[in-house]
TrEMBL record, chain A:
<dbReference type="InterPro" id="IPR030379">
    <property type="entry name" value="G_SEPTIN_dom"/>
</dbReference>
<keyword id="KW-0131">Cell cycle</keyword>
<keyword id="KW-0547">Nucleotide-binding</keyword>
<dbReference type="Pfam" id="PF00735">
    <property type="entry name" value="Septin"/>
</dbReference>
<dbReference type="InterPro" id="IPR027417">
    <property type="entry name" value="P-loop_NTPase"/>
</dbReference>
<keyword id="KW-0342">GTP-binding</keyword>
<comment type="similarity">
    <text>Belongs to the TRAFAC class TrmE-Era-EngA-EngB-Septin-like GTPase superfamily. Septin GTPase family.</text>
</comment>
<dbReference type="GO" id="GO:0043934">
    <property type="term" value="P:sporulation"/>
</dbReference>
<dbReference type="GO" id="GO:0032161">
    <property type="term" value="C:cleavage apparatus septin structure"/>
</dbReference>
From TrEMBL, chain B:
<dbReference type="InterPro" id="IPR027417">
    <property type="entry name" value="P-loop_NTPase"/>
</dbReference>
<dbReference type="GO" id="GO:0005525">
    <property type="term" value="F:GTP binding"/>
</dbReference>
<keyword id="KW-0547">Nucleotide-binding</keyword>
<dbReference type="GO" id="GO:0032156">
    <property type="term" value="C:septin cytoskeleton"/>
</dbReference>
<feature type="region of interest" description="Disordered">
    <location>
        <begin position="370"/>
        <end position="420"/>
    </location>
</feature>
<dbReference type="InterPro" id="IPR016491">
    <property type="entry name" value="Septin"/>
</dbReference>
<feature type="compositionally biased region" description="Basic and acidic residues">
    <location>
        <begin position="370"/>
        <end position="395"/>
    </location>
</feature>
<feature type="compositionally biased region" description="Basic residues">
    <location>
        <begin position="409"/>
        <end position="420"/>
    </location>
</feature>
<keyword id="KW-0342">GTP-binding</keyword>
Length: 336, 420
């Protein structure tokens, strides 16, 4: 059926402006979790992406400092303002991840946190009296930090990525890529993509039927770059009297905004300029929905079991089809 | 010419009048050593991809380690730590070196790296054991020395303090080998970051009491050596890069290095990294000291501990002549004494038993005798009775009057009873 032609100007095309205005008033939430061993450059990178000192490095600074025994979850929220648009940015750091001799299960706390946010959102959604706007604490993106120089994915990476990609949008990065030549980077990226496809690890961006040609091309070019080989820096150095955000080595100066030096610009544009709303949307539509479906199914099964038990006991039936407000049967640890 | 004599504990210092020639002795040693050739065993430890093979190939300017083969993603990652060794005979200026490099693939690569040092420690100790066994052989003319002279431990360039696995590894191995920790992939860090990082590493090492190999100068060293040693010491732990490839500098000269979009880092440029210092210490100035420390300190400590734990006791009375004949005499005497004791014991026991038996037999003898007497008396009685009967029978051969019969029967009765 072809769309009918509109004769006069009606004006519904101003909806985009209306939405924008509403958005400006309301602001939005962006939650990003950083997963990687100590010393991979997590804090520096995130501070570089947002051009603000958002998080402090949690690395051990003195010999007397006690080494963490488990993975901790450290969320830090700040409100950033750019041209009237407010974002409540929460960066979740995971100090202790992968730092032990025995790293079995070091991902458990991370997965639990992500699922807890989904669960919290679901709980508020299911309330008979819902808040008009639910504060969205769901994790919209996970920056996963790979080790430069390894053959490809390490056994730990494979285990963790498999689990992370099921609950959130994962963006793999190499943060300290100033030790990799361009050839080495190409080789490493190819290797990582091969291994991810072998282990059926699907990272963001995902392809969907809604994509038009432009989206598809953009996504394809982004997938080419994955994992992003970036360099982070909070320092500005003088190069020929010009301020450059980068790192000064004895043999040269790295300009993180130089596309020939590293993928920083691509990563930042991808995360903030082109795919920001998509990240939030996909979290809601894909990961949250998945979680929600499995949770509600579990509730239903629980109800059914209880009803069967009650019927067997000869007591009154449950009958109610409305799930009550109460603690949700959140995934036990074992499933993680 | 006067001869000056100073007394230092019984040793007199004498000055010679002319050239004698024993100053040529070091040259003789040198010639002999060169003829014999040297060996040097190096172990490299660090996670996969950190640059172990590249560094070794760069240090010795030859492909000791071949290129890594690419494994398909379906290949199972290696479980645990493997210890493999590779030997190469290399020659320079007529000096032959048998270089052995021991690799430890798999260290730190698994999810669970607890006890990753165990196979490495066992390997080091087994080499000590092999040497110990050879020393104890009857014929010791050919001892092959496979002991590890140094372990190069690769630290990831995180910029933070040492990781748990670094500390645990070094704590367990530092008393068994010369430990040389280095910062791998030095091109990751800027000069100021490196300075801070080195300080943090040294602080951690001191805090945990880890002993690493350091060049020390003593009073016999010339000022140049002392200065060199101080310079080397100031750069520890070395931050190095390796490269087997040559790249062209802007002015066209080829150097070993790595090319980045922002510049070229040169392996042999001391301003870019500490490779030169590492090579100098390892090969040019302190190779002998590494071997010496391994032989005289680390191996000896191991040997002492091992022998003590096996029950050998240091006989501090003497270092007298060990005379096997005397030993045997003593043993024989001890043995004889023991035998003697056993003999007396046994004869005592024997005697005791004999006495017992004798007593028993005596007792039964007496019993038998008593029985015999008893039976005899019974027999006697019976005999006397029979005699009586016989007499009576003879008397009753003449007719007996009924009065006499009555009388006799009464009398017999009486007689029977009167006998008692």
């Amino acid at each position: 059926m072809t769309a009918p032609e509109v004769q006069d100007y009606v004006g519904f095309d101003t909806i985009t402006q209306q939405m924008e205005r509403k958005f400006l008033k309301r602001g939005f939430n962006l939650n990003v979790i950083l997963v990687g061993e100590s010393g991979m450059g997590k804090s520096t990178l995130v501070n570089s992406i947002f051009s603000t000192h958002l998080v402090d490095s949690q690395g051990r600074r003195t010999a007397q400092e006690v080494i963490r025994k488990t993975t901790e979850i450290l969320p830090v929220t700040q409100t950033l303002d750019e041209n009237g648009v407010r974002v409540r940015l929460t960066i979740i750091d995971t100090p202790g991840f992968g730092d032990q001799c025995n790293n079995e299960g070091c991902w458990v706390q991370v997965i639990k946190y992500i699922k807890d946010q989904h669960a919290a959102y679901l709980e508020r959604e299911l309330k008979p009296q819902r808040d008009r706007i639910i504060n969205d604490t769901r994790v919209h993106a996970c920056l996963y930090f790979l080790n430069p120089g390894s053959r490809g994915l390490r056994p730990l990476d494979v285990e963790v990525l498999k689990r992370l990609t099921e609950v959130t949008n994962v963006i793999p990065v190499i943060a300290k890529s100033d030790s990799m030549t361009l050839d080495e980077r190409t080789l490493f990226k190819r290797r990582v993509k091969e291994e991810m496809s072998f282990h059926r690890i699907s990272v963001y961006p995902y392809s969907s039927e809604d994509d038009d040609d432009e989206d598809r091309m953009l996504n394809a070019s982004i997938r080419e770059l994955v994992p992003f080989a970036v360099v982070g820096s909070e320092e500005t150095i003088d190069v020929d009297d010009k301020p450059v955000r980068g790192r000064r080595h004895g043999w040269g100066v790295i300009n993180i905004f130089d596309e020939t030096h590293c993928d920083f610009v691509h990563l930042r544009n991808f995360m903030l300029r082109t795919h920001l709303s998509d990240l939030v949307e996909v979290t809601a539509q894909r990961h949250y929905e998945q979680f929600r479906t499995s949770q509600l199914r579990q509730i239903k099964e629980l109800r059914a079991q209880q009803a069967a038990a009650a019927a067997a006991g000869g007591g009154g039936g449950s009958g109610s089809s409305q799930p009550p407000v109460g603690p949700l049967p959140h995934q036990p640890m074992a499933q993680v | 010419m006067k001869s000056t004599a100073g007394n230092t504990g019984g040793i007199q210092k004498k000055k010679m009048n002319g050239y004698v020639g024993f100053s040529n002795y070091p040259n003789q040693v040198h010639r002999r050593s060169v003829k014999r050739g040297f060996n040097f065993t190096l172990m490299v430890v660090g996670e996969s991809g950190i640059g172990k093979s590249t560094l070794i190939n760069t240090l010795f300017d030859s492909k000791i380690f071949p290129d890594r083969e690419e494994m398909p993603p379906s290949a199972e990652p290696a479980k645990g730590v493997d210890v493999t060794s590779m030997s190469a005979d290399i020659q320079e200026n007529g000096v032959k070196l048998r270089l052995t490099v021991v690799d430890t693939p798999g260290f730190g690569d698994s999810i669970n790296n607890e006890d990753a040092w165990q196979p490495i420690l066992e390997n080091i100790e087994s080499r000590f054991d092999a040497y110990l066994a050879q020393e104890n052989r009857v014929n010791r003319s050919k001892i092959s020395d496979n002991r590890i002279d140094a372990v190069i431990y690769f630290i990831k360039p995180t910029g933070h303090c040492l990781r748990v696995i670094d500390i645990e590894f070094m704590k367990r191995l530092h008393t068994k080998v010369n430990l040389i920790p280095i910062i791998a992939k030095a091109d990751t860090l800027t000069a100021s970051e490196l300075e801070l990082f080195k300080a943090k590493i040294l602080a951690d090492i001191n805090y945990h009491g880890i002993q690493i190999f350091k060049p020390v100068s003593d009073e016999f060293d010339d000022p140049e050596t002392v200065a060199d040693n101080r310079e080397i010491l100031s750069k520890i732990p070395f931050a190095v890069i390796g490269s087997e490839k040559h790249v062209e500098r802007p002015d066209g000269t080829p150097v070993r290095g790595r090319r980045y979009p922002w510049g070229i880092i040169e392996v042999e440029n001391e301003e870019h990294n500490d490779f030169i210092k590492l090579r100098q210490m390892l090969l040019r100035s302190h190779m002998e000291e590494l071997k010496d420390t391994t032989d005289m300190v680390l191996y000896e400590n191991y040997r002492t501990q091992k022998l003590l734990s096996m029950g050998h006791v240091q006989d501090n009375n003497v270092f007298r002549e060990f005379n096997p004949l005397v030993q045997m005499e003593e043993e024989k005497r001890a043995h004889d004494g023991k035998m003697q004791k056993m003999e007396t014991e046994m004869s005592g026991v024997f005697q005791q038993k004999v006495n017992e038996k004798e007593a028993k037999l005596k007792q039964s003898e007496e019993e038998l005798y008593a029985r015999h007497k008893e039976m005899k008396s019974v027999l006697e009685k019976q005999r006397s009775e029979l005699e009586e009967k016989k007499k009576r029978a003879e008397v009753s051969a003449r007719p007996v009057t009924p009065m006499e019969q009555q009388h006799t029967t009464k009398g017999k009765k009486k007689n029977i009873f009167s006998g008692f």
